[in-house]
């Protein structure tokens, strides 16, 4: 079970993030405007302004800025991109010996695609890839991956060798444009925000990878830009999928595990998605998936089904896991479809923590399994 889990990550000194539209709300309700001012050594305080005529004149703060701890990251609700990214930066600041944040690419709309690497820099380590929100409406995936990052970084000294002998490459929001769009405009948006002829159509990033791209016609993906499964004009046409390819292929460390998190079918699936044949390591992948599913069941009682993509779902052509397995040669490549079949994409927030814990147990078990001789 999880150790020392407090359910939150407190950013204790210098960050205050405006996560909603409280600024506009303040203005509408009170005739005042809230700003966040930097003062002192990176400290921010919330100061209220009042409109005086056309300009804005500063009046005395309503109350003294409090030097209290400000909670911005937890696993009790789903968070905006700014919170996720400042959380990564704070992990790097709090654990500089093992955490490094980098930008592995820019989205179509120019947002950073941030990655956290957790590593003790041991040259014999193998690498593990974790990504989430390649499909933007699948919010629980980002919550799970940030939980794993937080847990591994904070408990690193106490964790088993099979966890600490890995370099963890963690991308909590692979599709940041879509992710923000699901928070501001359309909760059910799946694709990136690619434009065509001036209008946003969006590409299904998990049909934009090169292995099996475009196979099986409209069954495995779509060439219709209006489809939710639109594969894009060519493999890796999109900066988000290209960032995954470039990061993995340029890594000096060999990857052993690739886990891409989705929702909501409660499945652990592996190649192939683009054809019906079993992949060459079918039995090993099935065993690893079964070990994860058992750990989940023992953690929460939820049964995740296991099998290859085509058997458990449908043709899915141009997926990241077919590419990571076949082209990047990552032997344990899985797509994990998180909860929940009942609530679909709108998992109640009171299930976030339990989902995170069950997946931590699964990932930990997989690390033991892949280290067996
Ligand atoms: Zn998905």
Secondary structure: number of strands: 15
Derived from helix and strand composition plus strand pairing, the structural class reads alpha/beta
How many separate domains make up the residues?
1
CATH arch. level architecture: 3-Layer(aba) Sandwich
> Percent of residues in helical segments?
25-40%
The oligomeric status of these chains comes to single chain
Structure, briefly:
InterPro entries: Peptidase_M14. The chain is an alpha/beta fold. The chain has helices spanning 22-30, 81-94, 139-154, 161-164, 176-184, 217-220, 239-249, 282-300, 309-312, 320-326, 352-370; strands spanning 8-11, 32-39, 43-52, 55-58, 70-74, 99-106, 112-118, 126-132, 166-171, 195-196, 199-200, 255-263, 267-270, 305-308, 332-338.
What does this structure look like?
The chain is of the alpha/beta class. The protein has one domain: Zn peptidases (Aminopeptidase, 3-Layer(aba) Sandwich), CATH 3.40.630. 31% of the residues lie in helices and 23% in strands. It has 11 helices and 15 strands. The protein has an 8-stranded mixed sheet with strand order 6-7-9-8-12-15-13-14, sandwiched between helices. Strands 2-3-4 form a 3-stranded antiparallel sheet. A two-stranded antiparallel ribbon has the order 1-5. Strand 3 and strand 4 (55-58) form a beta hairpin. The two termini are 25 Å apart. Residues 1-61 have low confidence and may be disordered. Zinc ion (ZN) is lined by residues 135, 138, 262.
């Amino acid at each position: 079970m999880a150790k020392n889990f407090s359910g939150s990550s407190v950013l204790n000194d210098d960050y205050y993030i405006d996560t909603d539209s409280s600024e506009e709300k303040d203005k509408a309700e009170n005739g005042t405007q809230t700003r966040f001012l930097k003062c002192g050594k990176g400290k921010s305080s919330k100061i209220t302004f009042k409109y005086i005529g056309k300009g804005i004149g500063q009046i005395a703060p309503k109350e003294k800025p409090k030097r209290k701890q400000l909670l911005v990251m937890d696993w009790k609700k789903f968070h905006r991109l700014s919170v996720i990214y400042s959380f990564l930066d704070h992990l790097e600041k709090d654990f500089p010996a093992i955490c490094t944040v980098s930008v592995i690419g820019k989205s179509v709309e120019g947002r950073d695609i941030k990655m956290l690497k957790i590593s003790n820099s041991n040259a014999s380590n193998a690498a593990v890839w974790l990504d989430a929100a390649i499909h933007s409406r699948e919010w629980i995936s980002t919550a799970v991956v940030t939980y794993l990052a937080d847990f591994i970084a904070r408990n690193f000294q106490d964790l088993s060798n099979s966890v600490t002998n890995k370099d963890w490459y963690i991308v909590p929001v692979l599709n940041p444009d879509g992710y923000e769009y699901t928070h501001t405009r359309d909760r059910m948006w799946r694709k990136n925000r690619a434009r065509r002829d001036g209008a946003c159509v969006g590409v299904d990033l998990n049909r934009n990878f090169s292995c099996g791209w475009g196979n099986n016609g409209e069954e495995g993906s779509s060439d219709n830009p209006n489809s939710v499964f639109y594969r894009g004009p060519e493999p890796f046409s999109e900066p988000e999928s290209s960032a995954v390819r470039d990061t993995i292929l340029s890594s000096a460390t060999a990857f052993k595990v690739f886990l891409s998190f989705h929702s909501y079918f409660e499945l652990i699936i592996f190649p192939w998605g683009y054809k019906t044949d079993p992949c060459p390591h079918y039995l090993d992948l099935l065993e690893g998936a079964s070990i994860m599913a058992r750990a989940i069941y023992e953690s929460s009682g939820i049964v995740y089904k296991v099998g290859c993509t085509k058997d458990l779902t449908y043709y899915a052509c141009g997926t990241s896991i077919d590419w990571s397995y076949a082209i990047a040669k990552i032997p344990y490549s899985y797509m994990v479809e998180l909860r929940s079949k009942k609530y679909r994409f709108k998992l109640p927030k009171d299930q976030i923590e339990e989902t995170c814990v069950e997946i931590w147990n699964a990932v930990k078990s997989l690390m033991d399994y892949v280290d067996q001789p």
